[in-house]
Amino acid sequence: MATDKSVPSAFAARATLEQVEEGFALAPKFDADGLIPCITTDVDTGEVLMLGYMNAEALEKTIASGEAHYWSRSRQCLWRKGATSGLTQKLDEMRIDDDQDAVWLRVRVAGSALVVMSGTFPVSTARSSSAASRTTRRADLCGSAWRSPGKSSIRRPSMAMRQTRPSFERSVPYV
What we know:
The chain is of the alpha+beta class. The chain has a domain of about 90 residues: Ubiquitin-like (UB roll) (Roll), CATH 3.10.20. It has four helices and eight strands. The chain is globular, with a radius of gyration of 18 Å.
């Protein structure tokens, strides 16, 4: 369980639909495990950096510190993004959807890290600010069973390709 239900939260109680969807109080809706999904994008490029989860403490620490904190479902602990990699996420803007069950962080990535992958992915020393920087062809994902991509089927977008892709900011107007 990601949160202790007995600990008082800094967030407003969810009283009515009108209060949640049209009010000014931050009243996030955490799931049964005490988590809320959080999509994180680069404020300058619009690139999706990660999909993570936050518990109440992670959301509170993100707001208070201005640096992204998440709940690790695999390690079952709170973590500050960049604590080990050096790729800290400085909060530029936080948004929450109308029913307050999903968070969107727009961040500036600070620092750099050496990315070393193992297992079915090739070892790489390429620098990347995004955990979602590996791509694979659709054909590698199709078929009767999941197939681990080989070295020839996985690639990293070149810097030129990253710079010429349309950004989320340009393709979706902000309201």
